[in-house]
Design goal:
Layout lengths: L4 H13 L9 H9 L12 E9 L2 E9 L6 E7 L13 H11 L2 E5 L11 H15 L6 E11 L1 H15 L7 E5 L10 H5 L8 H11 L25 E8 L3 H13 L4 E10 L10 H18 L2
Parallel strand pairs: 3-4, 3-5, 5-6, 6-7, 7-8
Antiparallel strand pairs: 1-2, 2-4
Length: 309
C-alpha cells in the first residue's frame, strides 16, 4: 500500500527542514531533538497530574501519574516510553499519556526508567519491573484496581512491556491483566525483510536501530537474552493477553508481527494489527495525521477491552 499522504507531507516537511538523521548525532543532541520534535499535540485536561518518585533497584525512579476525571476506582496502565532505550522522557510522551488516560478512562503511570548508555541493560527492564510492582502494591492510593493492571509502551517501551510481562511471570508477579505493544522491538536481528525494505526514508532507519542497540547492549551475545530480545524466549505461555500493532513502513514491522504470532502459538490471546500506510512513531502523530489518529483510537479501544474498562 502507498504511504499515507498526510504522513508523506510530514516526512517531506522534516526533510526540507534539514538537520542530521536520527542516530547521526551525540546522545545529548539526539535527546534534545527528540524531546523538541515539532508535532502538534492535543490539549487534554485531566483531573490531576502528579510528578513523584518511587523506589527502584538503583535509587528513586521518577514517574508521572495521570488521573482522569471520575470518582470510580479505575484500571491502571503502567506506560513505558519509546526512544530506543537511549532517548525519550516523561515530557516527550506527556500528550500520549494524557490521551490514553482520558480516552481509556484509566490511571496512567508513566515511568522515567534509566537510559543507556549511562545505564545499560538490564537497568531499564529492572526499573520497569520495579515500577509495576510498586503500582500493584500501591494501587489503592492511586484510586486504581490492582486486578486491572496493564503494561504498555511503544517501540523500546513495547519491548520493555513484553519483557516486564515475562519477568512478572518468571519472578512471581505482579499479576498483569493486559499488555499493549505498539510497534515493539522484540529481537536484535537486522536481517528481516522490513529492515531492508524500510531501511531509510520513514523516520526510523535501520542505521538508527544499530545506533540504539549499540548504546543499550554493546555485547551482541547478550542481546540474545530473552529480557533483551523477548522474541527469543523459549516459552511464551502464561503471559497476559496482548494487543500488538505494527506499521507498514517500519523497520520493526516483521519482528513485532513475529512476536504476536509466537504469543498466539503459545496459547496467549493476542490481537495483531498492521496499520498500512503508516510509519514508526505514529502514536505521537494523531493530530497531524487522521489515519494515525484512527490507529491510536484502536489502541485505546483494545486497552479498554483488555482492562474491562
Amino acid at each position: 500500500m502507498a504511504l499515507d499522504p498526510t504522513i508523506k507531507l510530514l516526512l517531506d516537511a522534516m526533510a526540507a527542514a534539514g538537520g542530521p538523521a536520527l542516530g547521526a548525532m551525540s546522545v545529548a543532541e539526539t535527546r534534545t531533538m527528540f524531546d523538541n520534535m515539532p508535532l502538534p499535540r492535543k490539549q487534554i485536561e485531566l483531573a490531576r497530574i502528579e510528578n513523584r518518585t518511587i523506589p527502584g533497584p538503583a535509587g528513586e525512579i521518577p514517574v508521572r501519574i495521570y488521573q482522569p476525571n471520575g470518582a470510580a476506582v479505575k484500571p491502571v496502565l503502567v506506560y513505558f516510553h519509546g526512544g530506543g532505550w537511549v532517548i525519550g522522557s516523561l515530557d516527550a510522551y506527556d500528550a500520549t499519556c494524557r490521551e490514553l488516560a482520558q480516552e481509556a478512562g484509566c490511571v496512567v503511570v508513566s515511568v522515567d526508567y534509566r537510559l543507556a548508555p549511562e545505564h545499560r541493560y538490564p537497568a531499564a527492564p529492572e526499573d520497569c519491573h520495579a515500577a509495576v510492582k510498586w503500582v500493584a502494591a500501591n494501587a489503592a492510593s492511586l484510586g486504581a484496581d490492582p486486578k486491572r493492571l496493564a503494561v504498555g509502551g511503544d517501540s523500546a517501551g513495547g519491548n520493555l512491556s513484553a519483557v516486564v510481562s515475562q519477568m512478572a511471570r518468571d519472578k512471581g508477579g505482579p499479576a498483569i491483566r493486559f499488555q499493549l505493544l505498539v510497534y515493539p522491538v522484540t529481537d536484535a536481528d537486522f536481517t528481516r525483510r522490513s529492515y531492508i525494505d524500510n531501511a531509510e526514508g520513514y523516520l526510523l532507519t535501520t542505521a538508527a536501530m544499530h545506533w540504539f542497540w549499540d548504546h543499550y547492549i554493546p555485547s551482541k551475545p547478550q542481546r540474545a537474552e530473552p529480557y533483551a530480545s523477548p522474541l527469543r524466549a523459549a516459552d511464551l505461555s502464561g503471559l497476559p493477553p496482548a494487543w500488538v500493532c505494527t506499521a507498514e513502513f517500519d523497520p520493526l514491522r516483521d519482528e513485532g508481527e513475529a512476536y504476536a504470532q509466537r504469543l498466539q502459538q503459545a496459547g496467549v490471546s493476542t490481537t495483531l494489527t498492521r496499520f498500512d500506510g503508516l510509519i514508526h512513531g505514529f502514536i505521537s502523530m494523531g493530530v497531524a495525521a487522521p489515519k494515525a489518529q484512527a490507529a491510536v483510537d484502536e489502541a485505546v479501544a483494545a486497552l479498554k477491552k483488555g482492562l474491562g474498562a
